[in-house]
Amino acid sequence: xxxxxxxxxxxxxxxxxxxxxxxxxxxxxxxxxxxxxxxxxxxxxxxxxxxxxxxxxxxxxxxxxxxxxxxxxxxxxxxxxxxxxxxxxxxxxxxxxxxxxxxxxxxxxxxxxxxxxxxxxxxxxxxxxxxxxxxxxxxxxxxxxxxxxxxxxxxxxxxxxxxxxxxxxxxxxx
Length: 174
Known about the structure:
By secondary structure, the chain is mostly beta strands. It has a domain at 56-172: Immunoglobulin-like, CATH 2.60.40. The chain has 1 helix and 9 strands. The longest helix has 22 residues, at 17-38. The chain is elongated, with a radius of gyration of 27 Å. 17% of the residues are buried. Keywords: Cell projection, Cytoplasm, Cytoskeleton.
């Protein structure tokens, strides 16, 4: 009685006992060498930081709006969402630090986590102060340590890639 017909590629290499074992032993050693060369070194703390940071999302997505009157301070809320799979450090800066405050100005966000940030505008006279070009910039980078919980400014000063998202500020004067 004939068995089922073999379908698929032919097996390569020797098929008799000892030579068969030696062939697959050598083959597995070669694949181990290739595998270890392609994997990043786990002892290297900067391996995570050398990868490009993934995207973030913000709400609002396009701009921050402050409505008049500006004789009192105003606060807008921005939600920053880490949509990626790696822990990131984020820093939020503004072009007018004397008028626009950010709280918290920086932090660490785990994968799929979000933070709500207060963007506060101090009282000012829009007729006498320049408001053109005001913006908030969200910067982020992968943390060198995947378990980091405390923000470190040096993450933004090394060789790692830093990404930015600009949110223009619009002042509704009327």
